[in-house]
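S.,

Sequence below, as promised.
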Amino acid sequence: MRNRYIDVLRAVAIVRVILYHTLGFWWLTVIFPAMGLMFALGGSLMAASIDRSGPAAVARRLRRILLPVWVLASIALVSMSLVGGTQHTWRWVLWLVPFGDAPTTVWGGTWLAMFWYIRSYLWFVVLSPALLWTYRKWPIPSLLVPFVVLVAMVVTGSSFASGGTLRDFFYYVPAWMPGFAHHDGQLRRLSRTVLWLVVALLAGFGLTWLFTHPGPRIYDLNDNPLADATWSTAFLLVLLAYAPKMLNLGRVDLAFEAVNRRALTIYLWHQAAIALVDFGAALLGISLLGRWGGFVEVSTVFIVLGPLMLAFGWVEDFAAGRRPALVPVPQERPVVVEPVPEPVAT
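The prediction came back faster than expected:
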């Protein structure tokens, strides 16, 4: 049984990620901070899994994530070895257990940069039983402490603030924890006055910090972790606090479920699709600049994603214990509020 509202939010977030990675417009990160939202949805779904299955939910979620990841990793390792530029190092094991940044070549980096998300998501999955227990025992401190640590990193100029596993944990745990609050129904019960006061403070600080501290890509939130964490949290609080109890979109419901059944495949392979389109355009001498060029590039990326989903999407079915299918066509069924664990969309 599915929560269609989560399906809709995740599908929109994935589309926004693809548009950003294709076109590179900084304002896309501001009008729809997709990454924070994807982590929040992951936190909500993980809390539902733990409540139903206990710690065993961690192993099941790891299976659903790692099997599709291993398919991409095997192709990445073989292709990078054939192209050249690889160095033998123990860190190659991180392609199998991606709890750290796996090494890539210059060529591989053009279509494997999204692995930071898989690394961060896996850490949240493994730590979720402890995080959920902490949140339910000390809800307010568990929400505030990550912000305090992130502020300390930025203000002190800590080397951790420039990136890496530790920075990303405190970067996105402020989104993961509200996902717990959404699952527990606390955001719906929260006073609207308190909610909007918190949203106003977070959004005001986030946007002020963003526009007074421009980065290498001007006002791109990805270059400004403090602005991103605060603005994204404000954004997702509104979306989750006003989540409808029931969302039925008729036949379109099935389309959103189909997209979510291939969410991880789309995320894992979308940068490969972008790289293929860019390479093909360069080979054919086609310009992808300007409005028309951008339209052609985005359209072609979505077209190229089709065969990639047909080729690799069935792995998601296998990992989830479903009958593998080339085309994810779910059977029509009623929609209910309670979410169930799904592979990352993120």
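DSSP finds 15 helices and no strands in the chain.

Coffee later?
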